[in-house]
Design brief:
five-stranded parallel beta sheet
Length: 438
């Protein structure tokens, strides 16, 4: 007997009965792990990034470090070292020198193994100080500090994984991109997981990474989403009709996480909580009241998230000393855009044209909009919008929807956007008492 929770729904279990290896990505990921290259796994929210990483690294020791707002390159490396029992003190000085010390004394059996691999004995306590140079100079030139940090992690035989890379400041992302080249030369290959829409972000930050990073952009075709439903239904010994599959796939808008939630709610509405016992009859589910109930249930679950998104965004705008009008018009243009535009990305020039058509929008300059778009990711992080709803790609100059469930909520929820026409006016009355700094 197979329970519904083991098939559909959002779960940390990568061995779900509806897990689909689309396009041979599992094999591609394993090949990349063995190829001595860094790996970037990216895509929208709830697209299976962590599942892919967990499946590929199953049974292999990993050091998973969560990137959080405010984290620095040195703090992430320090945390990684701490996970293998090596006490580290690392920092970047005001002159952009990298200083640090390592202590293996309390690292136990793993530490002894690392020491043996590095042909070291005792404690590394002496500080090292190497000039990094200019901000965009490859940190590979600062071999000493980065060498013993990278080689120590590599000697542990643990794979370093940086989750939620999009949560750290762009300056830190760039810094890490330059560090990655040197890390690879020292034998440390990193898996980076995050939300961003376009390929080759890391080589965009550092051209020397071209050919050194396997870039895996997770997207789902309708055929692959259909396979998820068929495979899951087979595990439950039920059948989804062709019409029901078409409706569920359409509602998902290419988001496998949303598809999983809808399928779970349809089964719940039909009281399918597990597969039948031996010899049980196979049940066919079709479009009907259960689909309507599933839509409503999922939309209700989303209401808190998107109301918080809207409320936090408005509060964030009220805290802005300047730029309030840009964000007000920007968000109005986003909420009015079509599904396909949000999925494909809206060009900044198109956004400016639409803003100019709003009452008062003609005063917004291209430079004002560019500055607002450059800050849209960091603004969401500072006001607690997690995961991101919107993300801006500087290389393509397009604003993308990072969370496709927004489209579903817009269709089936009850959105009451506080920046929409007719809503109370938004002022920046908190700009002095609670300013929002970038």
């Amino acid at each position: 007997m197979v329970n519904l929770s083991a098939v559909f729904g959002i779960s940390a279990n990568a061995n779900s009965k509806s897990y689909v290896d689309r396009g041979g990505l599992d094999a591609r990921f394993r090949q990349a792990l063995a190829a001595d290259r860094h790996i970037a796994v990216h895509g929208g929210s709830k697209q299976g990034k962590t599942w892919l990483r967990t499946k590929g690294l199953e049974g292999e020791a990993t050091i998973v470090v969560q990137c959080t707002p405010g984290a620095t390159a040195s703090s992430l490396l320090q945390e990684a070292l701490g996970r293998i029992g090596v006490q580290a003190v690392l920092k970047m000085t005001s002159s952009r020198d990298l200083e640090g010390s390592l202590d293996f004394s309390g690292s136990g059996e793993l530490g002894a193994k690392i020491l043996a691999k590095l042909s070291l004995t005792g404690k590394l306590g002496a500080k090292a100080k190497i000039q990094q140079g200019t901000e965009l100079q490859p940190i590979g030139q600062t071999t000493a500090d980065l060498a013993w940090v990278a080689e120590t992690i590599a000697a542990s035989d643990h794979r370093l994984v940086l989750e939620d890379f999009h949560y750290i400041d762009e300056t830190v992302q760039r810094e890490l991109a330059f560090m990655l080249k040197a890390m690879g030369e020292y034998g440390l290959f990193v898996v980076i997981v995050g939300v961003w829409p376009k390929t080759h972000l890391l080589s965009y930050y550092n051209g020397d990474l071209e050919g050194r990073v396997d870039d895996i952009h997770l997207t789902w075709s309708d055929a692959e989403l259909t396979k998820v439903l068929v495979q899951g239904a087979d595990a439950l010994k039920i059948t989804f009709s062709a019409a029901l599959i078409a409706e569920l796939v359409k509602e998902a808008s290419g988001n496998v996480g949303l598809l999983q939630r809808l399928a779970e709610q349809v089964c719940t509405a039909e009281q399918v909580y597990s597969s039948p016992g031996f010899g049980g009859a196979r049940w066919t589910l079709d479009v009907g009241a259960s689909l309507a109930a599933a839509r409503q249930a999922v939309a209700d679950q989303m209401e808190g998230r998107f109301e918080t998104f809207a409320d936090n965004f408005v509060r964030g705008m009220r805290r802005l000393p300047q730029g309030l009008e840009v964000y007000r018009h920007l968000l109005e243009a986003v909420t009015d855009a079509s599904d396909q535009e949000l999925l494909d990305g809206i060009d900044s020039a198109v956004l400016l044209q639409r803003i100019a058509s709003h009452p008062g929008g003609a005063a917004i300059r291209a430079s004002d909009l560019t500055q607002a778009l450059d800050r849209i990711d960091s603004l969401q992080l500072k006001i607690g919008v997690q995961p991101l709803v919107l993300t801006y790609n500087k290389s393509s100059r397009k604003l993308f929807l990072a969370d496709r469930s927004f489209l579903f909520f817009r269709r089936h929820g009850n959105p009451n956007w506080p920046w929409a026409a007719g809503a109370p006016d938004i002022t920046n009355d908190l700009a002095q008492s609670d300013p929002l700094d970038f």
